[in-house]
Structure formats: structure tokens, C-alpha cells
Write a structure and sequence with these properties.
Serpin_sf_1; two-stranded parallel sheet; serine protease inhibitor; Serpin domain-containing protein; disordered N terminus; protease inhibitor; 6 helices
Length: about 160
């Protein structure tokens, strides 16, 4: 019974977070000329997971081809999320290349992907309140102080962007 109440409470909190995050993203006009014209998709989080899984399997296969007899330790999660931060900031050909490499669905726009990313990050943080589970990820995008970063990107990715000295 307690687990059911906790699950319902967590779902309600996630709904509120989705609303708050999406309203911030939509009002910021950060990714497109008219961000508010993009409809928020409830499928975006599953699409994020699907792309991450496809990317991970592809990465494992490629590394295994290159060094089939060696043991390699790395985090596909960190690789994916680091490149995802680059995708959020990218445009033009770089954006398209990262979108293909990260296995992001053609139907998934940056606003929905960013919302899914933020909800997923918040959900992981909420689940860290257990003695039996801890997940820490410190992926950051380091930007030279001389590079002009749009304020909306600084607002949306404040925890992920850090200026280089």
C-alpha cells in the first residue's frame, strides 16, 4: 500500500515537473523561431530511451569490432548524454550528424527531447532517495568565456553548462 501511494505521489510530482519544465522551454523561444508551435509529446521520454538504447548497442558493437580481445570499461550513458548536450547546442550539419549518431527519431524535436531529458534527470534524482540505489552523473558542457551562448540555453541547461576560465 505504501509503495502504491509513493508511486502515485511520484507520478503526480513528475506531471507537475513536466508542466513546469515544458512551460519554461516553450516560452523561451530557444530552439526554433516559434518554440510555442511545437506540441509536447508524451512519447518523447520513450523515444529518448529508445535512441539511447540503440546508440548504446551500436557503440558496444563498434568498440567490440575494434578491440574484440580486450576489456574496456566505459559508460555509454555518459557518452550519450555528453553528446546529447552538444546536440542541444548544435545547429546545421552538426545538429543533423549528432541526431543521426544519437539515434534520435526524426519525429522528435529538440523541445520534446529537452523536456524528456529534464524529466528523466529529475526522476533519477528522486529515485536516489534510497539506501539501496545511488546514481550520480556529472556530464557538463564546458564553454570558453569568449563564446556567446544564448541566454535561453544558459537558463535551460544551467546545471550542465560551465564556463572555462
Amino acid at each position: 500500500m505504501v509503495a502504491l501511494l509513493t508511486s502515485c505521489r511520484r507520478d503526480k510530482i513528475l506531471e507537475v515537473l513536466i508542466f513546469l519544465i515544458s512551460s519554461t522551454l516553450v516560452n523561451s523561444q530557444c530552439f526554433y523561431k516559434d518554440d510555442s508551435s511545437k506540441k509536447l509529446s508524451p512519447e518523447s521520454r520513450m523515444s529518448l530511451y529508445r535512441g539511447q538504447l540503440e546508440f548504446t548497442l551500436h557503440l558496444f558493437n563498434e568498440i567490440n569490432k575494434m578491440v574484440p580481445d580486450d576489456n574496456i570499461f566505459f559508460s555509454p550513458f555518459s557518452v550519450y548524454h555528453s553528446l546529447l548536450l552538444g546536440y542541444f547546442a548544435a545547429g546545421g550539419q552538426t545538429e543533423q550528424s549528432l541526431k543521426r549518431s544519437l539515434k534520435i527519431a526524426d519525429t522528435l524535436d529538440k523541445i520534446n527531447l529537452m523536456t524528456a531529458y529534464k524529466v528523466d534527470k529529475t526522476s533519477r534524482a528522486m529515485n536516489n532517495n534510497s539506501d539501496s540505489y545511488e546514481f550520480t552523473s556529472v556530464n557538463k558542457m564546458f564553454v570558453d568565456r569568449g563564446v556567446n551562448v544564448r541566454q535561453c540555453m544558459l537558463d535551460v541547461l544551467s546545471a550542465e553548462i560551465e564556463a572555462l576560465v
